[in-house]
Task: inverse folding
């Protein structure tokens, strides 16, 4: 009897040790830098110091199935103001993070659909409000699903906290006046239009299937065109810093002067802002007004190589 008890105790000790090893693997250190891989996240889903946030724009995506433990931030109603065209207010942002159980010690991992555009927007908003330890899931939802990783439709509940924004960094945000100053040579900022070549030239006003939201087509004078997709690999992950430096350096974006990114509504340009600012460390502002503001503004210069004026030649 004693022998069997001793055998059971040794077996229990072995199981406990193996469980401890598994927990150690699951709680692996948070990687340096602005990105985490799908592999790392899969091993750290149970880490209570991580808060996973989905920022998708297509209705019902989160509800049909999301990465286990992820909370849902709506781009339309959580990260944008619902009354005025603006990002979420400081007060509502604090409530959002408090309701999600986020503290100053939490590492936030953002991901989403549509090439991580709106998750990158989220990272930009988090940066404006000074949130530390914010990461983007490299490859986003598409890569996670392509690898047949776990999804569920359970909405998690976390103990509420009292999150307080310590400061607001408006230097990360370009306004119409900043963009116009760059266009007219009154500042040394360089403009990068990350839309498609056809949008940039004025051949089309908006991507296929997207409602036209601007009176004029074309681009801001002086802007260079580097479509957002040039920054990513086929699986949606970002290219290496070395590759990114070559891509942007080829059009004069080398970090030696400030940069302003823009697109149509600010979401695609957030993706390029992330690449230039977070991965390469350049001084970058995102112009969230983008072409829907600039293309509708009165008295601003517009370059239109395609010759489309008021939707007609």
Result:
């Amino acid at each position: 009897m004693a022998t069997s008890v001793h055998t059971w105790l040794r077996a229990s000790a072995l199981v406990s040790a193996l469980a401890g090893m598994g927990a150690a693997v699951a709680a692996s250190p948070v990687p340096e830098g602005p990105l985490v891989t799908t592999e790392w996240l899969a091993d750290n889903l149970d880490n209570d110091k991580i808060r996973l946030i989905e920022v998708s724009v297509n209705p019902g995506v989160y509800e049909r199935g999301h990465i286990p433990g992820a909370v849902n931030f709506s781009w339309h109603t959580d990260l944008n103001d619902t009354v005025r065209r603006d990002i979420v207010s400081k007060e509502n942002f604090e409530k959002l993070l408090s309701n999600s159980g986020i503290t100053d010690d939490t590492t936030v991992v953002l991901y989403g659909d549509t090439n991580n555009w709106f998750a990158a927007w989220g990272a930009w908003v988090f940066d404006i409000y000074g949130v530390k330890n914010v990461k983007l899931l490299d490859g986003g939802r598409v890569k996670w699903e392509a690898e047949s990783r776990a999804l569920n439709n359970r909405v998690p509940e976390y103990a509420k906290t009292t999150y307080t924004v310590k400061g607001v960094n408006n230097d990360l945000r370009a306004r119409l006046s900043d963009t116009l100053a760059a266009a007219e040579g009154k500042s040394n900022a360089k403009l990068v239009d990350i839309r498609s070549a056809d949008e940039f030239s004025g051949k089309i006003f908006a991507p296929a299937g997207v409602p036209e939201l601007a009176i004029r087509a074309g681009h801001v004078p002086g802007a260079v065109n580097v479509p957002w997709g040039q920054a990513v690999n086929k699986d949606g992950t970002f290219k290496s810093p070395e590759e990114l430096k070559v891509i942007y350096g080829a059009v004069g974006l080398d970090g030696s002067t400030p940069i302003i990114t823009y697109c149509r509504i600010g979401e695609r340009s957030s993706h390029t802002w992330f690449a230039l600012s977070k991965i390469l460390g350049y001084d970058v502002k995102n112009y969230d007004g983008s072409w829907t503001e600039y293309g509708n503004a009165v008295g601003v210069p517009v370059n239109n190589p395609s010759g489309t004026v008021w939707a007609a030649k």
